[in-house]
Amino acid sequence: MTAFTVPTRDTVSAGNQGLFDALNGQLGFVPNLYATLAHSNNALGTYLALQSAKSSINAKAREVVNLVVSQVNDCAYCLAAHTALGKMNGFSDAQILEIRAGSLASDAKLDALARLTRSIAVNRGQADEALVDAFFAAGWTKENLVDVIVTIGDKMITNYLHAVTKVPVDFPAAPALDIRLAA
């Protein structure tokens, strides 16, 4: 397989250099997976715009989606990054593992979100209708559902990018999950 190197600021286009500078200013570094997007003159900017777009679901709910989808796709990079972000959004280590398994018993609304997200991701968009109904019964809206699907798409982009490129993970590794995620 062709080895993918992680681009540096000096090896990317002028437009991507500006994005690297902005990421360095915000995060203190450019995560390897973001840098890998800079192999394209357009992908990094496009992805950052998608990721920072307005949404009807808050950051905590987005982390539920990110963790569930990354677990379904077995993305070591995104699981590591979103474990860190999940903690920053108030989830405990135990809750993060539970979310990755597709539920969150301590919060009915986020539980419905996790269960539906898992169904959508595992079944390639063909969600269990009962889980869609449970999502709405938990207080989510049709706008929220659309934004959840956009967030799933966002996460699939980086999950797939890492699966193909296998660039080094530059976040602390996520703990193993001791369950098998069947459909």
Describe the structure.
By secondary structure, the protein is mainly alpha-helical. The chain has two domains: 9-51, Up-down Bundle (Single alpha-helices involved in coiled-coils or other helix-helix interfaces); 59-165, AhpD-like, CATH 1.20.1290.10. The chain has nine helices and no strands. The radius of gyration is 17 Å and the shape is globular.
* Poorly predicted sequence stretches spanning 5 or more consecutive residues: none
Strand content: under 5%
Strands, count: 0
The radius of gyration over CA amounts to: 17 Å
Could you tell me the CATH topology label of the largest domain.
AhpD-like
Please tell me the CATH architecture of the largest domain by its name.
Up-down Bundle
Sketch the major β-sheet.
none
Helix content estimate: 55-70%
* Tally of helical runs: 9
- Estimate the global geometry from the Cα principal axes: globular
**Domains (count):** 2
Whole-number mean pLDDT: 96
Helix-strand pattern, N to C?
Answer: HHHHHHHHH
Structural class: mainly alpha
The separation of the N and C termini measures 30 Å
Query: Superfamily at the CATH H level of the largest domain?
Result: AhpD-like
> Mind telling me the CATH class of the largest domain?
Mainly Alpha
